[in-house]
Amino acid sequence: MTLEHAIDAEVTDSDFITNNSLVVVLTGASSGIGKATALQLAQHGATLVLASRRSELIDELAGQCGNAIAVTTDVSKPEDMQQLAQAAIARFGKIDVWINNAGIGAAGRFEEVPLQDHLRVIETSLQGVIIGSHIALNQFKQQGYGTLINVGSAAGKVPMPYFASYITAKFGVVGLGEALYQELKTEKIKNIHVCTVNPWVTDTPWFEHAANYTGHVIRMPLPDDPLNVAKAIVELIENPREEVHVGLTKAEILSHQVMPQLTENLTALMTSSRIGEGAVVSPSSGSLHQPMQGTGSITGNQRKASSDK
Predict the structure, then answer these.
(1) CA 76 to CA 286: how far, in whole Å?
(2) Who contacts 114 (Cβ-Cβ below 8 Å, separation ≥6)?
(3) What's the Rg (C-alpha) of the chain?
(4) Which residues touch 120 (CB under 8 Å, ≥6 apart)?
């Protein structure tokens, strides 16, 4: 059974999202967690506004999602994100949920990754989340309600080597969520929610899209199923919470709280031992500066690579 069929089989129509006809803006929708989330939400009956740089892929996905539109968007550009919000309002009159999912990384020793690639990671994976959060919260304040969901990472809780700018971005995303949550709590605003979901390493095309200066195809251990992250996002819409950890993230965070140095040492050892195991490849900026062509798959090849060990 494909992941798309699994999504179809697990979702019913009689739920919170369907009953409330929610309008959901979703960035990074062309593949991976974003696409899995879009398909799951569509099966729930949500109205979707899908954003990505890859126009053809989100146009095709919108056609599979019922009541949906696609808006070509570079999340690092404020003008693109404003156009995304305006398209949602013009078409559907409101935004109930805004999901900042788009993100990209660069792998390699910090000094060997070109500076422009590090900066591009920050532009997309942190600046894009700040822009989206700012636009969403302004809209929610006007409406008097709404839910913002930012996709963080286990890497925003426990650092690991060879992904320095991505780690920086995800620590920023987690911190942003905590700060915004506290603002709403301090102001006693009850109908606007800020949530952060922190996936474990997930089997998506993210690693194929990332800039890679390690000299090898990236292989990470114990990758999770992207459907688990999509389900966690849907659950946050139905039951908003400050933070949700998916897969092994919760165990890693607990370990880091109890044994911080040991946990960091083990994380570093696990990452460094796998970073040079894949096939030899030439240095590449991946899809950082230009969208990568190809199909918009949900899964990558991380679980297969892990099972081959």
Answers:
(1) 17
(2) 213, 285
(3) 18
(4) 76, 104, 106, 288, 289
CATH classification of the domain holding 302: 3.40.50.720
236-249 burial by CB neighbour count: b if 16+ within 10 A, else e?
bbeebebbbbbbbb
C-alpha distances in angstroms, 68 versus 29, 90, 115, 137, 231? Answer: 12, 13, 38, 22, 19
Q: How many structural domains comprise the chain?
A: 1
**Terminal-residue alpha carbon distance, the chain:** 24
Residue 119 and residue 65: Cα distance in Å, rounded? 34
pLDDT of 159-195, one tens digit each?
A: 999 999 999 999 999 999 999 999 999 999 999 999 9
Q: Domain limits at 158?
A: 3-307
| The pLDDT value given to residue 273 | 72
Partners of 149 in the β-ladder: 99, 195
The tokens describing 75, both together, are: 């999340």
CA distances to 30, 54, 62, 301 from 72, rounded to whole Å, are: 10, 7, 12, 27
Q: Which positions are catalytic?
A: 166
